[in-house]
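Q: For a teaching session next week I want to show students how multiple molecules come together into a single three-dimensional assembly. I've collected the sequence lines for a complex. Could you give me the predicted structure tokens for the whole thing so I can convert them for display?
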Amino acid sequence: MATDFPIRTRIRYFTDQAATVTAVLFTALVILPLVAIFIYLLLMGASSLNLDFFIRVPKPVGESGGGMANAIVGSATLLAVASVIGVPMGIGGGIYLAEFGRGTKLANAIRFTADVLNGIPSIVMGITAYSLIVMPQGHFSAFAGGVALGIMMIPTICRTTEEMLLMVPHVVREAALGLGVPNWRAVLSITVRTASPGIITGCMLAFARVAGETAPLLFTALGNSFWSTSLNEPIAALPLQIFVYATSPFDDWHRLAWAGALVLIVLIVLAVSLVRYVTSRGVLKGAS
Amino acid sequence: MGVGIEVTNLNAWYGSNHTLQDINLNIPANHATALIGPSGCGKSTFVRCLNRMHETNPIARVTGSVRMGDIDIYEDVKPVEIRRRVGMVFQRPNPFPTMSIYDNVAAGLKLNGYTNHKSLDEIVEKSLKNSALWEEVKDDLKKKSGASLSGGQQQRLCIARALAVDPEVLLMDEPASALDPVSTSKIEDLIFQLKSQYTIVIVTHNMQQAARVAEKTGFFLNGRMVEFDSTHKIFTNPSDKRTEDYITGRFG
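A: Of course. Below is the structure for the complete assembly, covering every listed component.
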């Protein structure tokens, strides 16, 4: 019994309890918004989910029913393009910052640029892609949308990659060099491999962040009410479709917008889990 | 087989810090040579000069010559080549954490482009047997990570990794200082067996260890080599007063 202890022990006991309760409380506060959003989306959107939602394109104004199949495929296409651009450039930049350019002026400039890029409003990315790709081509396109999202992914991936590489212990690098392995090979096969779980987390963060972006797509992918899988034409995307439906005057469309938001969040969770599962296979017992 | 090492007028710097001053010594082939001395006296810097790891630090600099057999390692070859011929075991065990036990041992060969799987298997087995680890890990070679082993096993894994590339010289920088006494004596037994095939240079803070494993011992102090002689002479009848003070525990 706590009451049997001398007074200082009791004070220590209560301090310990108080600290634990505080920590649990704040953990709950962190999780609460996510849970709340998810439950609200389920309440508002789950009832509108049916097979049609996943296999049909939107119906014209005035007709009920229809789905967001084209937006789901469109989002997947845009994110694929964005990842093809953002992941290699981000990881490559991060490797340069941490390994080859450490301490150089160029590296400092790149790091500064990445940090600034991270703070630029996403609509500016859309306008950039608009003036670089849409204007010269003369039409909106999935490719332009993918580029806008891809550029947004670069700074997050770049900086996480750098930080994860710097966390690899110096002794591990020395072990590789001590075996007569050339520096570039040691970096790619040892340091990057050791840091890969953290680098993958960075990629997933960037992916999840741009998956819900609407603003950069307004000027680039534009949206599309019909089927399109061409990179050279306007394409639908879940966030765009949600935006259009949510700002419409029709109750039917509002419900579809809720369903779209629910599907978007579930798909992001699925994609991130899938990548985690695939990359965690082959990790050995006791590997840190 | 091991080769002898001939060090002439070796000087090393970290920035403006002159850490090694005019080192001259001949390390005999196929023997164990111990380097003793208080912390910060330059022992580690010295062994790192023997495989050109010293210069991986951007502010480091070296002058003088180091001959191994008939080559001058600072004149005749590139750093990566010399590091393949001179294996190194570090103070803290440093297996590659994401690699299996097998891949850790094979790393030096695989990363240098060696891909013959059949002989890789043989080399891995032979190296693990040479480092007295085979019996403990043979069932988990590809299942467990190198980091899952105990500290003493990790250090023997690191020795196996160094042996797998078939070096002529093995540098050991306080290989047992992070280990318990049982693991330490295993490492010492190992050094005893390995020295018939390799030239071994071992840095140690433990003077009994130097006396147990090495034929020759060098005493370093403040970046200079004070005395280099047979281990027996150093520990029973040193010619320099400072050596005597150090080994009798009057300082350091």
